[in-house]
Automatic annotation (TrEMBL), chain A:
Principal subcellular localization: membrane
Topological category with respect to the lipid bilayer: Multi-pass membrane protein
Cellular component terms (Gene Ontology): plasma membrane
Name of this chain's protein: Sugar ABC transporter permease
Family listed: Belongs to the binding-protein-dependent transport system permease family. MalFG subfamily.
Compartments where found: Cell membrane
From TrEMBL, chain B:
Domain ABC transmembrane type-1 positions: 298-516
Membrane topology: Multi-pass membrane protein
Entry similarity comment: Belongs to the binding-protein-dependent transport system permease family. MalFG subfamily.
Gene3D superfamilies xrefs: MalF N-terminal region-like (1.20.58.370), MetI-like (1.10.3720.10)
Coiled-coil residues: none
Function: Part of the ABC transporter complex MalEFGK involved in maltose/maltodextrin import. Probably responsible for the translocation of the substrate across the membrane.
Any single biological process term in GO: maltodextrin transmembrane transport
Name by which UniProt lists this protein: Maltose/maltodextrin transport system permease protein
TM spans (from-to): 21-42, 48-68, 80-99, 298-324, 336-359, 379-405, 426-449, 495-518
Main localisation: membrane
Coiled coil is among the record's keywords: no
Keyword GTP-binding in annotation: no
Keywords, alphabetical: Cell membrane, Membrane, Sugar transport, Transmembrane, Transmembrane helix, Transport
Length: 309, 527
C-alpha cells in the first residue's frame, strides 16, 4: 500500500500542476493546441493559391510560352501585356468593353425589372398573385440556357428580320439574358421589400402620392442595399457566362472576354500565345475579384439566401 | 395617423404629392416610342411575310397602350415588361426546344417540303444552249462562318442587273453598297465575299443552286460564273413523285426526303423538316452506335455531380471546422485567401487549369514528375475534371459551412460537453447532423448546378477524350455539352436530337427540384 501511494500522489500533483500551467500561460499553449490547424489551413491555402500564382507567373514570364512557364517567375517583364494590347488579330480591349457593357447593362435592366415585379408582388394585391409567384419559383428551376436550342433557332430567325438584335449582336445577347430577369431575383427582392414597413407607403398614399411615386421615391430608396446586392450577383453571373455568349458571338470583334480568351487557347498557337492569354486572364479576373473583396459579406449572404429560397 | 403622416413627409418631402408634369410627359414619350418601335418591327416582319408575328407584335403594342395609357391594371404596369421578356425569351425557347425534339430539324432537313423540293429541282439544272449566264461572287452573310454559313450568290447578269440568291430564291440587289469591278461584284455591304481559297473549301458549292421562279435554278460553273439552266427533275404533285427526265429514275417521298423508288441510287440531297414523333428519343436509347455512349454520358453526368458536391462539401466543411476555433489568430485573412478561387470567373479558372494539365508543358506533370496524358485517357480526364471542380467549388462550401457553424445553437454544444462528449463524438453526433440540415437545400442546388456545368466541361476537356473512333460522344461529356455539340458543334447540326437531350435534362432537373419545391417554406409563406 505504502509503496503504491507515493507514485499515485505524484501523478496527481503533476496533473494539477499541468492544469495550473494551462490556466496561467494560456497564450503560448493556445498556439501549441492549435498549431496543427494552422498547418492544415496553410496546405489548403497553397492548394487555393497555386493556380493563381501560376497564371501570374505566366503573365509576367518574358518568354511568353506555356513551356517556359514555371510556378514562380524567373524573370519579370510586361512583354505579354504589351503584346496583348497590340495584337491585331485579337481585339482584347473590345472584348473587355463588350463584357463590361453586357454585364452592366444586363444587370441594371434586370435589377429594375426585378424591383418592379417585387414591388407589385409585395405591395399590390391582385388576382393570380400567389399563383404568379409560385410559377416564377418553378420556372426559375429551368434557366433559359438549358433551352439554348430553341434560343439559337429563334434568334437566328429574328436576326433575318431585325439584324440589330439577331445572333452575333451584343444587344441580342443581353435580350436573351433578360428572359430570366424577373424570375431569378424576384424572391430575394420581395423578401427584402416585405421588411420595409407598410406604414410608410400607407402614409404617402394618404398624402395623395400615386403608386408610381411611392415606388420611385419611397420604396426604391429604402431597398437600395438589396438592389446593390442583386446588381452585383447579376453582374458576376453575366460577366462569367459562357454558353450563350459562345453561341451568340462568333465575330471576333463582338466577343466577350470568356469567348475571346477561349479562342486563344485553341489551335497550334496556344503554346506561344500562352503569355498573352495569361495576361488577358489576369486582367479579366480583376473586376470580379475586386468586387468580391470589397463586398464579400453582401455577395456571400445574397448568394446563399438566393439559393435557399 | 398623425405619426404615419409625419413619417411620410419626412421621406417624400412636404410638397403636395401630385404627379409632376415632366413625369407625365416622359411617360407618354415612352409609350409613343414603344408604339413606334412596334410599328417598325411589324413592318419589317410584314416584309418577310411573318403574318403571325405581325399579329403578335400588334397584340403587344395594344397591351402597352392599355396598360400604361390608362389608369387601370396597376399591377400589370410593374409586371408587364418582365412578363413579356419571360414569356418571349424563357418560356418560348423551352416550348420551342420541346417541339423541336419531336422533329427531324437539322442539317439536310431545314426547310418545308415545298422549299426543299424546289431546291432539289434547282440542283438538278443542266446548262443548255441559250441559258442566261451571270458573273458570280460567292458570299456569306456578315458574321456567319465562311466555312459553314449559308451560301449567297451575288450575281450580275449580261445587262448589268445585280441579284442576290440564296437557297430560298433570287432577289434584286440594290447597287448601293456594292463595289463592281469588271462586271463582277467584289464587295457588298452586309456580306463577306469568299476568295478562291475559301470558296474551294466549300464542298456544298458544287451542289448548291438558287431556285428561280420559272422552276429552274442558278448554279455555279466554277467560282466566277453561274448559269440559269433547265431542271432535269419534274415534280408530279398529285402522285407526289419526282421523275428525272434524263435517267427516267422515279423518286418517292420517304423519311422526309426523296428516295429512288427502285431502291437503287442516291436520295436527292435536300430533305425537309417533319414531325418524327418519338424517333429522337428512340435513337438515344436504342440506336446501337449511340446508346452505349449516351448511357455512359448519363451515368458520368450523375457521378460527376454527386462527386463534385461530395468532394467540395467535405473539403469546405473540414476547413470551416478547422477555422471554427476562436484561439486561431488571423482567421479573417485565412478566410479571404481561401475564398479567392471563388472570386475568379469560371472561364479563367477552367482555361488555366486546362493548361496546367497539359501533358508536355503543364505544371501538374512538371511538379509531380508524372507523364500523364490528362486529356487523352478517359479516367485521367475525369479525374482532372473533378480536381478542377474541387478547386472551383470548395470555397463556396467553406463559406456556407462557416456561416452554418456560427449559427449552431450554443446550448446544444454546452449540453454535449456537460454530458462528457469528446470532440470527435460532438462532431459526429451533433455538429455534422445540424450542419447537414442547415446546408441541405444548398447541396441540392449545388447538385442541380453541377448537373449542367457546361462552362467547366466545355472549357476544360470539350467533353473529350473521344475514344473508339466516336467523335460525338465524349468520355467527360455532360448531357448539356453533348446537346451543344449535336446542335452547334459541327457542320451537320441535328437540332431535333439536341432538343431531345434537352428534354431529358429538363425532366431530370424537374424531378430533382420538384420535391424541394413542394417542401419549400415558400409555398406556405406567400402572403
Amino acid at each position: 500500500m505504502a509503496v503504491i501511494d507515493p507514485p499515485a500522489a505524484t501523478g496527481q500533483t503533476a496533473a494539477t500542476a499541468a492544469g495550473a500551467a494551462r490556466q496561467t500561460s494560456s497564450g503560448g499553449s493556445a498556439f501549441r493546441a492549435v498549431w496543427w490547424r494552422h498547418v492544415l489551413v496553410w496546405i489548403a491555402i497553397a492548394f487555393a493559391l497555386f493556380p493563381i500564382l501560376f497564371v501570374l507567373s505566366a503573365a509576367l514570364n518574358p518568354a511568353g510560352t506555356l513551356s517556359t512557364t514555371s510556378l514562380l517567375p524567373k524573370n519579370v517583364s510586361v512583354n505579354n501585356f504589351d503584346a496583348l494590347f497590340s495584337d491585331g488579330a485579337r481585339p482584347y480591349l473590345s472584348w473587355y468593353k463588350n463584357s463590361l457593357i453586357i454585364a452592366f447593362v444586363g444587370s441594371a435592366i434586370a435589377v429594375f425589372i426585378g424591383a418592379c415585379a417585387a414591388y407589385a408582388f409585395s405591395r399590390l394585391r391582385f388576382r393570380g398573385r400567389r399563383v404568379g409567384l409560385l410559377a416564377l419559383l418553378l420556372l426559375q428551376m429551368f434557366p433559359a440556357l438549358l433551352a439554348f436550342v430553341g434560343l439559337y433557332i429563334t434568334f437566328s430567325n429574328v436576326g433575318e428580320v431585325l439584324p440589330k438584335i439577331g445572333l452575333n449582336t451584343i444587344s441580342g445577347l443581353v435580350l436573351a439574358y433578360l428572359g430570366g430577369a424577373m424570375g431569378a431575383n424576384v424572391w430575394l427582392l420581395k423578401g427584402y421589400f416585405d421588411t420595409v414597413p407598410r406604414e410608410l407607403d400607407e402614409a404617402a398614399r394618404v398624402d395623395g402620392a400615386s403608386h408610381a411615386r411611392i415606388f420611385f421615391t419611397v420604396i426604391m430608396r429604402l431597398v437600395t442595399p438589396i438592389l446593390v446586392t442583386v446588381f452585383m450577383i447579376s453582374f458576376v453571373g453575366l460577366f462569367g457566362e459562357f454558353l450563350l455568349a459562345s453561341i451568340f458571338l462568333t465575330d471576333v470583334n463582338a466577343q466577350t472576354l470568356g469567348v475571346g480568351l477561349y479562342g486563344m487557347t485553341l489551335g497550334n498557337e496556344s503554346n506561344s500565345l500562352y503569355g498573352e492569354f495569361a495576361a488577358g486572364s489576369v486582367l479579366a479576373a480583376l473586376p470580379i475579384m475586386v468586387l468580391y473583396l470589397v463586398f464579400q459579406r453582401q455577395l456571400v449572404s445574397g448568394l446563399t439566401q438566393g439559393s435557399v429560397k | 395617423m398623425a405619426v404615419s403622416t409625419e413619417t411620410s413627409s419626412s421621406v417624400i418631402g412636404s410638397s403636395p404629392a401630385r404627379t409632376p408634369v415632366w413625369a407625365l410627359a416622359l411617360k407618354w414619350v415612352a409609350i409613343a416610342a414603344a408604339l413606334l418601335l412596334a410599328l417598325y418591327v411589324a413592318s419589317k416582319l410584314a416584309d418577310h411575310g411573318h403574318t403571325l408575328a405581325v399579329v403578335g407584335t400588334a397584340f403587344v403594342a395594344m397591351c402597352v397602350l392599355v396598360i400604361y395609357g390608362t389608369r387601370r391594371a396597376v399591377p400589370m404596369k410593374y409586371l408587364f415588361v418582365g412578363l413579356a421578356l419571360l414569356i418571349g425569351l424563357q418560356v418560348w425557347p423551352i416550348v420551342y426546344t420541346a417541339m423541336t425534339a419531336f422533329t427531324n430539324y437539322g442539317q439536310g432537313h431545314l426547310a418545308s417540303k415545298e422549299d426543299a423540293t424546289a431546291q432539289d429541282i434547282a440542283y438538278s439544272v443542266r446548262q443548255v444552249p441559250g441559258s442566261p449566264t451571270y458573273t458570280l461572287t460567292v458570299a456569306v452573310k456578315d458574321g456567319t462562318s465562311t466555312v459553314a454559313g449559308p451560301l449567297y450568290f451575288l450575281l450580275v447578269d449580261e445587262k448589268g442587273h445585280t441579284f442576290v440568291g440564296d437557297a430560298k430564291g433570287l432577289n434584286q440587289l440594290g447597287k448601293n453598297g456594292l463595289t463592281i469591278d469588271a462586271g463582277k461584284i467584289t464587295k457588298a455591304e452586309g456580306y463577306t465575299t469568299l476568295n478562291l481559297l475559301q470558296a474551294n473549301k466549300r464542298k456544298d458549292l458544287s451542289s448548291f443552286a438558287v431556285p428561280t421562279d420559272g422552276g429552274g435554278g442558278i448554279k455555279a460553273s466554277g467560282f466566277a460564273a453561274a448559269y440559269n439552266g433547265k431542271p432535269t427533275l419534274v415534280w408530279d404533285k398529285k402522285a407526289d413523285t419526282i421523275t428525272d427526265t434524263t435517267t427516267k429514275q422515279v423518286y418517292v417521298a420517304e423519311g422526309a426526303q426523296w428516295v429512288p423508288q427502285s431502291g437503287k441510287g442516291d436520295a436527292l440531297p435536300v430533305g425537309w423538316k417533319e414531325n418524327v414523333g418519338l424517333a429522337n428519343f428512340r435513337t438515344l436509347f436504342t440506336n446501337s452506335t449511340i446508346r452505349d455512349g449516351f448511357l455512359g454520358i448519363f451515368a458520368w453526368n450523375i457521378a460527376f455531380s454527386v462527386l463534385s458536391v461530395l468532394t467540395t462539401f467535405v473539403l469546405g466543411m473540414l476547413l470551416a471546422l478547422l477555422l471554427n476555433d476562436s484561439r486561431i489568430k488571423g482567421r479573417g485573412i485565412y478566410r479571404s485567401l481561401l475564398i479567392l478561387p471563388y472570386a475568379i470567373p469560371v472561364f479563367v479558372s477552367a482555361l488555366v487549369w486546362a493548361s496546367m494539365f497539359n501533358q508536355q508543358f503543364g505544371l501538374i506533370n512538371n511538379l509531380t514528375h508524372l507523364n500523364i496524358d490528362w486529356f487523352g485517357s478517359p479516367w485521367a480526364a475525369r479525374a482532372a475534371v473533378l480536381i478542377t471542380n474541387l478547386w472551383l467549388g470548395f470555397p463556396y462550401m467553406f463559406v456556407v459551412c462557416t456561416g452554418a457553424l456560427q449559427s449552431l445553437p450554443g446550448d446544444v454544444m454546452e449540453a454535449a460537453k456537460i454530458d462528457g462528449a469528446g470532440a470527435w463524438r460532438t462532431l459526429r453526433s451533433i455538429t455534422t447532423p445540424l450542419l447537414l440540415v442547415a446546408v441541405g437545400p444548398l447541396l441540392i442546388a449545388s447538385f442541380a448546378f453541377n448537373f449542367n456545368n457546361f462552362g467547366l466541361i466545355y472549357l476544360l476537356t470539350k467533353g473529350g477524350p473521344f475514344t473508339g473512333g466516336n467523335s460525338q460522344l465524349g468520355s467527360t461529356d455532360l448531357l448539356i455539352t453533348y446537346a451543344y455539340r449535336l446542335a452547334l458543334g459541327g457542320t451537320n447540326p441535328n437540332y431535333g436530337l439536341a432538343g431531345a437531350v434537352a428534354i431529358i435534362i429538363f425532366i431530370i432537373v424537374g424531378l430533382l427540384s420538384f420535391p424541394g419545391f413542394l417542401r419549400s417554406k415558400a409555398l406556405e409563406e406567400v402572403n
